Amino acid sequence: MLKHVRRLIQRPCLHPTSARYCLFAWLLSLFTLLPLSAAASVSTGAFNYSATVSVALSAPERVREGNFQLSVEQRSEGTDAGNHEPKSWVIEQSNRADFESVVASYAPVGSFQQLSLSGFDDGDYFFRARLRAAEPAANSTEQTFSNVVKVEVRHYPLWQALSVFSVGAALFFILCLTLWRLQRQAKLATQ
């Protein structure tokens, strides 16, 4: 078997600069990734679990920056609680606690415990997790939601940010001036 592989590699058509080599490498990578894709697309809807899956969402109540983390904890209850795969959730954002209108949806890939969000202005934001249905039933209107968390974003005032920047700029200027003077004194001492 090893001799056949060596002969394939030594052929001019499989030289690393040839088009056939690129095609061969692409097909090989496609076939190696194929089992992962098939395993990832297996739906848990085919299995009958008598477990109830719920999720608890937590976040800081008040932040002074425009970024924060939402933490997700998935809990399973029932007879087969430990025998199922983690469910897929979508994080929804709204400006109101009753979620009359969803402003944004975040659909993280894979199983996650924390979601970092940034770029928020001053204001109150509400978040919840919704179970992402693989195949929604035609007659089912039931949705599974988590608890609602409120995040209050209040940035530092502009005067405070500018004063900290000014102090830092003054210290940097003093440092540069000191280094310049010490370098000049050392240069004069060597002459």
Q: In words, what does this structure look like?
A:
The chain crosses the membrane at residues 158-180. Keywords: Membrane, Transmembrane, Transmembrane helix. With 191 residues, the protein is of the alpha+beta class. It folds into three domains: 2-40, no CATH class; 47-153, Immunoglobulin-like; 157-191. Helix content is 34%, strand content 26%. The strands form two sheets. Strands 2-8-7-4-5 form a five-stranded mixed sheet, with no helix packed on it. It has a three-stranded antiparallel sheet with strand order 1-3-6, with no helix packed on it. A hairpin with a 7-residue loop joins strand 4 (89-94) and strand 5.
**Number of strand elements:** 8
Main beta-sheet strand count, sense and barrel state: 5 strands, mixed
Which CATH architecture of the largest domain is right?
Sandwich
Q: What fraction strand?
A: 25-35%
Uncertain stretches of 5 or more adjacent residues: 34-51
Shape: flat
**First CA to last CA: what distance?**
77 Å
| SS-derived structural category | alpha+beta
Regarding CATH, which class of the largest domain?
Mainly Beta
H/E series:
HHEEEEEEEEH
- The fold-level CATH name of the largest domain is Immunoglobulin-like
Number of helical regions: 3
Q: Residue-averaged pLDDT, rounded?
A: 75
